[in-house]
Design a protein that fits this description.
- This protein is an alpha/beta fold.
- The protein folds into four domains: 3-237, no CATH class; 243-338, no CATH class; 343-441, no CATH class; 450-617, no CATH class.
- 32% of the residues lie in helices and 20% in strands.
- It has an eight-stranded mixed sheet with strand order 3-9-8-7-10-11-6-12, covered by helices on one side. A seven-stranded mixed sheet has the order 15-25-23-21-20-19-18.
- It is elongated, with a radius of gyration of 29 Å.
- The relative contact order is 0.07.
């Protein structure tokens, strides 16, 4: 373990506690001897404790808390399922999904308690990610291992102590009412705290020996900052959900049955058969739009899959947001619209500061998400956190609002995020905005492109182009320019370009991500009865390694097909050329672009392949009073 996270009382334990991560079958393997084994056994040994239970009321056998304890204490650990029935008084779902991340995080909590019983654990991060559910999972795993647990949920206090389950009024809780340890006995009570309704920190009696506190909380330092600092607690978080987990979890939602009954009669989706109920009607509208884009929906399973995709695009990967988008679409849309309408340049500038001291307003959690970096060491005492916009749609909407800002404002906020390790992902969004603004304004038209070279000599179906930026790599190619008498850019929604393609203007995908390009420019050169089209595909990034999606190739081929049809209408012979340009900040020293799988596929009729270039864009550092704002 990290010696910087070790209290004096735990120094001896650290010498006998080793974390290993070499077994691929389990991402969190620990070896512990003497002290940890002794502590685990003593926790489960009633005779090691002294307790005057006059303060507590024993719950009867028929009480659901007693039934919960008996159920999991008698279940072999290797038979704990991946879908667990909801414990009593836990209403959002009939059951909950056990994510792999729950298992991994429980391992870390378990061994944190054994190695450092005088510390604790705070589970925090993005609201609506499943922190509270993880606490229930932790309760079940501890009951399964016959550990003493004090479960505190707002005003409920339930003590699972060996053969009994007890409760006590919150007002009567104190150190005198808790079981105690004789002498130097190595044991403690797991104290699980879910207090999101609280305005302050837990009572002192829940944070001192014999308690090992494990608190789940949305980011709010008023609820935990003091005890986490005093006890040198670990501070960890859960990752965002993925699509597979969201689909599995959706099947467990109580609202799903009625939602399917409301939507089912409208399948297959058509413009004529519109549901009456509100959420089903909005779902029908989404499915109809998707059907128009080539995704017809005939079965409920397909409909749910499309709706989850749409919710992810709109609101991101926090589970609460995704399910709210399906079951309560109007309410979540209104909440996010309010937050977006208020988002300002000043609000975004404060993200770095507010993220550091965890004072970010609730409205900002509807715009950005926080999540632990996958590079966080598993035995580290703190998760390394990252910040990003919650979804591509939200990012685009925020950026659209900020397009009215002066250029130096965007430069300033880019540099603010760029120098923050946690906010560097946000910097990428603003770099994209700055680069597009410079492209459209013609500010970088005279800059020299550097050609990138394919590492596999063109044989790879997902080729990687790489360059070390140096004077020798410069080409004579120059960027195209817009026509002075035309509108310089056109935004389009989703992945569908407008039917009538304009030449010599920039096309920018707006509300959601495009699989291959951030900007498209179509250049034409006429010669008698021939027309030569040059398609400029721009990808903009601050990363030194960038990837795309194979769907982008079909987008390029569709553009070529549309241009060919227009040329035939004008009785002209069309030829094509494609130029790929990766735009990155000037400070980037080495850049690599791995093109998507499919580079050599379906290229016979419309060849989407072409030369690949890199362009470094300088972003001036804003000096003086503005930088200090």
């Amino acid at each position: 373990m990290d010696p910087g996270n070790t209290t004096m009382a735990d120094a001896h334990d650290d010498e006998q506690y080793v974390l290993e991560g070499s077994n691929p079958e389990s991402r969190s393997i620990f070896r512990h001897i003497a002290s940890a084994q002794e502590r685990e056994l003593n926790n489960a040994n009633y005779s090691e404790w002294e307790w005057v239970d006059d303060f507590w009321t024993a719950l009867v056998d028929k009480n659901p808390w007693v039934q919960l304890k008996n159920q999991w204490a008698q279940t072999p650990e290797n038979e704990i399922p991946n879908v667990i029935e909801t414990p009593p008084r836990f209403k959002p779902t009939l059951s909950f999904l056990v994510r792999d991340s729950y298992k991994e995080l429980f391992d870390r909590v378990w061994y944190r308690g054994l190695a450092h019983p005088r510390t604790g654990v705070l589970i925090t991060g993005q609201p609506g990610i499943g922190n509270t559910t993880f606490l229930w999972y932790t309760l079940i795993r501890l009951l399964n291992r016959r550990q003493p647990v004090l479960f505190v949920r707002n005003w409920d206090l339930i003590l699972f102590f060996h053969d009994g389950v007890f409760t006590i009024p919150r007002s009567e809780l104190g150190r005198a009412s808790l079981p105690t340890l004789p002498g130097r006995c190595r044991a403690f009570i797991w104290t699980l705290l879910e207090l999101d309704g609280a305005q302050g920190e837990p009572e002192t009696s829940l944070l001192e020996d014999p308690c090992f506190p494990v608190q789940a909380s949305s980011p709010n330092p008023k609820r935990y900052s003091k005890w986490v600092r005093v006890r040198n607690a670990a501070k960890w978080g859960l990752p965002l959900w993925d699509k597979v987990e969201l689909m599995k979890g959706l099947e467990l939602q109580q609202r799903l049955y009625q939602f399917q009954r409301n939507l089912g009669p409208s399948l297959p989706i058509s413009a004529k058969n519109i549901p009456v109920e509100g959420s089903a009607r909005i779902a029908h509208r989404i499915l109809l739009r998707r059907a128009d884009e080539g995704h017809p929906v005939t079965q409920l399973k397909d409909a749910l899959n499309v709706l989850v995709d749409d919710a992810i695009e709109q609101y991101g990967l926090a589970v609460r947001d995704v399910y709210s988008a399906i079951f309560y679409p109007k309410e979540i849309a209104d909440d996010h619209r309010t937050a977006l309408d208020k988002a300002s340049y000043e609000d975004l500038k404060l993200i770095v500061q507010q993220f550091g001291d965890e004072t970010m307003a609730q409205a900002m959690h509807q715009i950005v998400c926080i999540y632990p970096s996958p590079k966080t060491p598993r035995d580290g005492p703190r998760s390394h956190w990252l910040v990003d916009f919650k979804s591509i749609a939200i990012a685009k909407k925020v950026i659209a609002r900020l397009r009215r800002c002066e250029g130096h404002h965007l430069d300033n906020i880019y540099h603010t995020f760029r120098v923050s390790a946690q906010c560097s992902v946000l910097a990428g969004w603003f770099f994209e905005t700055i680069a597009i603004r410079k492209l459209v304004a013609g500010e970088i038209q005279n800059m020299v492109l550097a050609e990138m070279w394919c590492l596999s000599n063109g044989q790879d179906n997902a080729p990687t182009f790489e360059i070390e930026l140096s004077p020798s790599s410069k080409s004579s190619l120059r960027l195209p320019s817009v026509e002075s008498d035309s509108e310089p850019l056109e935004y389009f929604d989703r992945q569908q370009l407008p039917e009538g393609l304009r030449l010599h203007c920039f096309y920018i995908p707006d509300a959601s991500n495009n699989p291959l390009f951030d900007a498209l420019f179509i250049e034409s050169h006429m010669h008698n009865a021939a027309v030569h089209f040059v398609l400029w595909i721009f990808q903009i990034t601050i990363a030194i390694i960038h990837k795309g999606s194979r769907e982008g190739y079909s987008s390029v081929r569709r553009v070529m097909q549309t241009l060919l049809a227009s040329a035939k209408d004008d009785n002209k012979v069309a030829t094509f050329e494609v130029q790929y340009v990766l735009i990155c900040p000037q400070e980037t020293k080495k850049t690599s672009w791995q093109l998507p799988v499919g580079w050599n596929d379906n290229a016979k009729t419309f060849d989407h392949r072409g030369k690949v270039y890199c362009l470094q864009v300088p972003i001036p550092t804003v000096l003086g009073r503005e930088l200090s704002k």
